[in-house]
Write a structure and sequence with these properties.
The protein is mostly helical. It is built from eight helices and two strands, in the order ββαααααααα. Belongs to the sigma-70 factor family. ECF subfamily.
């Protein structure tokens, strides 16, 4: 069953199941409902991607916003079939993340301050949060290309071929990056656990 959505400013009805390319064509015509549908469809993935790359919610939201600005600028000239929209979208978001990471290197910070969890919770919640923190920290310590490969495949759930296309490398090169990244993550996480005991 296909849900229907009423376009603002008129009686035209639009299927929620529209393709990305159709939404882009409507965005190029300044259709506000198409913009809203695209944001609703892509925002959670963009924020997750940027969070994994940058480790900061505010920066992740800024990257998502800038990515949407680029979508709106590119919409009038988008040629369906020349590039896969989702691949292009991930590449834009990753490039924006790398711009921010480069700026961070220019003004180094010793270590990000720990933020206390202000929610009351059980010890299990604290341990789970500590594990997540260790994974985020270990992920942040990976070389950029290895981190990118891990984020695209495991967190963005892209196939090997789509992730390789986003990164501009062969599937074999992607698999090599993933293998090295997994080894480093296992080593780092094992070392962290050993230090805690």
């Amino acid at each position: 069953m296909c849900r229907q959505k009423v376009w603002r400013g008129g009686t035209r009805r639009q299927s929620v199941g529209e393709t990305d390319e159709r939404l882009l064509a409507l965005i190029a015509q300044n259709n506000a409902a198409a913009v809203e549908a695209m944001v609703e469809r892509k925002l959670p993935r963009l924020i997750r991607l940027a969070m994994r790359m940058l480790g900061d919610r505010g920066e992740a939201e800024d990257v998502a916003q800038e990515t949407f600005l680029r979508i709106w600028r590119a919409a009038p000239g988008w040629r369906a079939g020349e590039a896969k929209f989702d691949t292009w979208l991930h590449r834009v978001a990753l490039n924006l993340c790398y711009d921010r990471l480069r700026r961070r290197r220019e003004t180094p910070v010793a270590e990000l301050p720990d933020r206390p969890d202000e929610r009351p919770g059980a010890e299990a919640d604290m341990l789970a949060a500590d594990d997540q923190h260790q994974v985020r920290r270990a992920l942040a310590e990976l070389p950029e290309r290895q981190r990118e490969a891990i984020v695209l495949q495991y967190y963005q759930e892209l196939s090997n071929s789509d992730a390789a296309e986003v990164m501009g490398i062969s599937i074999e090169a992607l698999e090599s990056l993933l293998s090295r990244a997994r080894r480093q993550l296992r080593s780092r996480l094992g070392r962290d656990r050993d230090e805690m005991t």
